[in-house]
Design a protein that fits this description.
The chain is an alpha+beta fold. It has a single domain, classed as Aminopeptidase, CATH 3.40.630. It is 24% helix and 24% strand. The strands form two sheets. Strands 1, 2, 3, 4, 5, 6, 8 and 10 form an eight-stranded mixed sheet that branches.
Length: 199
Amino acid sequence: MAAVLDTVRALFAPKTETAFRIDAENPSDVVARERLLDKMMGPDRKKKSSEALRRNRVPAEGLALVARDPSSHVIGTVRLWEIEAGVTRDEIRVPALLLGPLAVDSDHEGKGIGAALMRAAILEAKKRGHGAILLVGDAPYYERFGFSADKTRTLMMPGPFARDRFLALELRDRWLEGAAGVLVPSGRRLAEPPLKNAA
């Protein structure tokens, strides 16, 4: 993963006081990430249909990334989650990734941070052998990375969603061909808290 991140850093980090770097998220980033998401997405962010696929799960291995400013503060985040994108006619489950949320601190917008996070996430997902990435987002923004609604016509989110914002990018040709149904989570669950002893 380090080689992919170094490539993205070289391509997308301007050599000025506004420089940033893309890095793997680490446990010490949790508070900063959650504050950033609350700031940029508001208190209702956990009510979205995508949240049902992320709840009580951990991101896919190596696919939780952050953007850092020169002082190493978290100024952007993106995470990808393992899901099943429906089943085929032969009842074969189709593994895929769900991207989100993607967020960049409003104080750092317009610097290419969101695009750098997207490109790093896509490159790393492809390197790790994943077949497709799905998301719910603004088509005009995500189309530049190859996402479209064409591949999601037979798929559904587990709750309300806007069909024209439900997008996919195949990392392997025809990966989603024949897949139909509701997305379900398949990633590793968060470790459950230990049970308290009965009093």
